[in-house]
Amino acid sequence: MTKIVSAKIQKKSGKASKKSFKQTLQDFDKNKNKNQNKINKNLKDPSKKPNKYSKVKNGSNNVTGSTAVSVPSSSATSAPSSSLIQGSSSKLSSLQHQFLKKLEGARFRTINEELYTTRGDVAFQEFQRDPSKFEIYHKGYRDQAALWPVNPLDSIIQWIISCHKKATIADMGCGDARLAASVPNKVHSFDLVAVNTTVTPCDIAHVPLATGSVDIVIFCLSLMGVNMPDFIKEALRILKINGILKVAEVRSRFGDNKGILAFNKFLQRAGFEVKAHDRMAQNKMFFEVECVKMTDEGIVDDTFELKPCQYKKR
Ligand code: SAH
What we know:
Strand 4 (168-172), helix 6 (178-182) and strand 5 (186-191) form a beta-alpha-beta unit. Helix 1 (21-44) runs antiparallel to helix 2 (94-117) and helix 2 crosses helix 4. It is built from eight helices and eleven strands. It has helices spanning 21-44, 94-117, 120-129, 132-145, 152-163, 178-182, 228-238, 257-270; strands at residues 4-6, 55-58, 61-64, 168-172, 186-191, 199-201, 214-220, 239-250, 272-277, 286-293, 309-311. Among the domains are: 82-144, Ribosomal RNA-processing protein 8, N-terminal domain (Arc Repressor Mutant, subunit A); 150-293, Vaccinia Virus protein VP39 (Rossmann fold). By secondary structure, the chain is of the alpha/beta class. S-adenosyl-L-homocysteine binds at residues 115, 120, 123-124, 141, 153, 173-175, 178, 190-192, 203-204, 220-222, 224-225.
């Protein structure tokens, strides 16, 4: 069973960070490359007793003992996850499968942690430099989400279909853009990497939409960067007056009830009227708030922080 816990990791501001995002991921990649080399060696080593795994088809040739693991050329510095292993994952031994699962899990947790402890613009540069990180992150995210009793995106989709069919929507941090695919509305989908042509790749602190152009802004589990107040500023900019902001977040990021009230206050000072909050109070995992933009004259507290969230190793 998946457990999302509030992180004990220290939050780092972009400047104060002891280790840069880039550095951390490079260190991680180094270790993962070592591990991947072991896998590759194991798969290639002709001294190992030949078995069904050492014979793979490569193009039109039957190649014995050739590598069964292909590393995407776009990501020479990154170890592949099993999702990136082409045509061979079903032929791996169960031990190799377990090892790859662990590798994948570790990479997912590292990328997740980095997204919560770095600025959005830095994350954007990093994901653009190496889009395979997005794939690894989302494979891990999907695996986790499959174990949740409810996915907050489902209730947001239902809410839009039943109450706001005609609204123009901005989905900030859209992931695989399931929201856009599930509602009849005009949806502008934004994320660090575009999974398809409906998504615009960008940092959600700066989306390419006109001021006052949308009716609803959604952040579903996507207030991840340490400069989260910049994302709220951007939501205020693109929302029409009387437009709706909807946030769903991991409950443990607020600490306790006081943290939830502090978040509501932060939104009120920013210029929102909090309409409904904690509709999902019976849900111990997620918190949801819906509010309406009342003014452009609010004050967004740049120092406001949410705790990072960690997916516990299982
Ligand atoms: N909202 C989606 C995905 C949630 S995962 C869903 O509910 O299914 C969080 C998403 O936010 C990830 O896809 C991540 O890439 C994105 N994200 C985090 N910080 C971002 C930023 N600064 N700019 C754009 N996207 C961001």
